Amino acid sequence: MPKRLTAIIQREGDGYVALCPELDIASQGETIELARDNLQEALELFLESASPEEIAERLQREVVVTRVEVADDWVPSTMK
Questions:
Q1: For the chain, what is the domain count?
Q2: Which domain covers residue 10, as residue numbers?
Q3: Whether this model's pTM surpasses 0.85
Q4: Residue 47 in domain
Q5: Of 36, 46, 43, 33, which is closest to residue 7 (Cα–Cα)?
Q6: What element of type H or E holds 31?
Q7: Measured between alpha carbons, how far is residue 18 from residues 6, 21, 27 in Å?
Q8: CA-to-CA distance for 54 and 46, rounded, in angstroms?
Q9: CA–CA separation, 74 vs 7, rounded Å?
Q10: Buried b / exposed e across 29-63, counting CB within 10 Å, b at 16+?
Q11: pLDDT at residue 76, as a whole number
Q12: What is the mean pLDDT of each run of 10 residues along the chain (80 residues)?
């Protein structure tokens, strides 16, 4: 059964960067879909080639992705 991991994708310049925080592996792509696909490939390659000890050492079992609210004083008026 496949293991579900987290992918955090954000725009960077003209493309997107995708990060898997559980294993601290990142990739990139010109679109969100390409960044996600490239991250999936990077994860699969890592899991195929890494030793069980390295995987266990890097694996963060509890990752929480949530939003927090902060005052908007710092937000440029163009973003409000």
A1: 1
A2: 1-61
A3: no
A4: yes
A5: 36
A6: none
A7: 10, 10, 5
A8: 10
A9: 27
A10: beeeeebbebbeebbeeeeeeeeeeeeeeeeeeee
A11: 76
A12: 91 97 97 98 97 94 90 74
